[in-house]
Amino acid sequence: MVETTVPGLVFVLSYTINRSINVSAAAALSLSAVLLVARLAQRDTAKHAFGGIFGVAFGALFAMMSGDAKNFYLPGMLYTLGLGVAYVATSLAGVPLLGVVLGPVFKENLSWRTRNPGRKAAYTKASYVWGAILLGKSAITFPIYFWGDATQLGWLRVALGIPPFLLAVYLTWIILVKAPAPIDVIAEWEEREKAKEAAKEAEKKAASSGGAAEAGPPEGEKDRLGSRASD
């Protein structure tokens, strides 16, 4: 959230002071680059930083090419709108996006679709929550984009950055904590692999013992048996 919100804050602060799209865009892009370098230096996950710098770069390009500072925020607004639609559409289709995203995190993958209906219902409900919050943000910001000015839009985008995200996370936690526990399909797969290995070992032992039985007794034992038979 820092990597997606703070560059926008820097842009609107700079633009409020100097009214220069180029300077403001350069300041936001430079900050995104610094955040990316910091991630790489810490050997931390950099995918969010990369996402942030690409988003800022697109916004800066849109703003400078159009000469309208409001377009700095347009890519992020379109992304928010598209993501909100995706949450709602996938929930209606029976494959809620939140389940697709969180399934691997909880080691359940997509098992909730067919084996855990209670969890599927929770993912569907939580996805509707995310969709409603994101579409609500879009319903607030797009009118300002069309009829407001760049500073109003910038400060509104900053205000609607972290709080709605935290609200969505909190509501998701409330929904999922009441849902059935995830099915650990990774552990199940590991157990199946162990069972297969154990079965193979048992087959090898059975084959080796069977071969020894077919070969008959050792030579010394044969001699003793022969002498007993002659007696």
TrEMBL record:
The name on file for this protein is DUF3159 domain-containing protein
Q: Which UniProt keywords apply?
A: Membrane, Transmembrane, Transmembrane helix
* Annotated spans, Disordered: 197-231
Q: What domain of life does the native source organism fall in?
A: Bacteria
Q: Where is the composition biased (Low complexity)?
A: 207-218
| TM stretches of this protein | 20-41, 48-65, 85-106, 127-148, 154-176
Compositionally biased region (Basic and acidic residues): 197-206, 219-231
Pfam families with a match to the protein in the record: DUF3159 (PF11361)
